[in-house]
Design goal:
With 130 residues, the chain is mainly alpha-helical. The chain folds into two domains: 32 residues; 95 residues, Helix Hairpins. α1 crosses α2, α3 runs antiparallel to α4 and α4 runs antiparallel to α5. It binds adenosine-5'-triphosphate (ATP). The site of adenosine-5'-triphosphate has 11 residues, from α5.
């Protein structure tokens, strides 16, 4: 019985291997992408603020989904950049379009996060003003 058939039989094996590759990807995006680190710290600030302002369970759920979605999109953006670099030599208008579009998707979601964050936090912050 070779490794492959073993893996087919025991899905857990394959699952753990995929998990390892995903962990490698997370290490790589953390090490190489400044934007990912900035967004991670911004996420920690958001969670601290949510704790200090005692947001509701539903608001916690929304904030957690938003923060992790920004990080996931940032990671996907990096994957697209790498794939484009792998297949392109020198300047190419389609390479530019692919990278610009991937960046735009992160920006769009970051704007959505900022708007929702403002809706959740602003009234609570204004209440603190005497
Ligand atoms: N091969 C290419 N052909 C044409 N334009 C490109 C090419 N590579 C990058 N660009 C342009 O340069 C911009 C920056 O691309 P780059 O790969 O340097 O990403 P980056 O600025 O390093 O992003 P990050 O900081 O998130 O890693 C792209 O959005 C695109 O407009």
């Amino acid at each position: 019985m070779n490794m492959d058939s073993k893996e087919t039989k025991f899905g857990l094996f394959r699952f753990l291997k995929s998990f390892g590759y995903a962990a490698e990807g997370m290490k790589s995006v953390w090490a190489t992408e400044q934007n990912f680190r900035i967004h991670s710290f911004a996420g920690i600030v958001v969670f601290l603020l949510a704790y200090m302002l005692s947001v509701s369970a539903m608001e916690w759920i929304i904030l957690i989904i938003l923060v992790f979605s920004v990080l996931a999109l940032e990671t996907m953006n990096t994957a697209i950049e790498k794939a484009v670099d792998l297949t392109t030599e020198g300047y190419h208008p389609l390479a530019k379009a692919a990278k610009d579009l991937a960046s735009a998707s992160v920006l769009l979601f970051a704007i959505c996060t900022a708007i929702v964050g403002t809706i959740i936090f602003l009234p609570k912050l204004l209440e603190l003003i005497p």
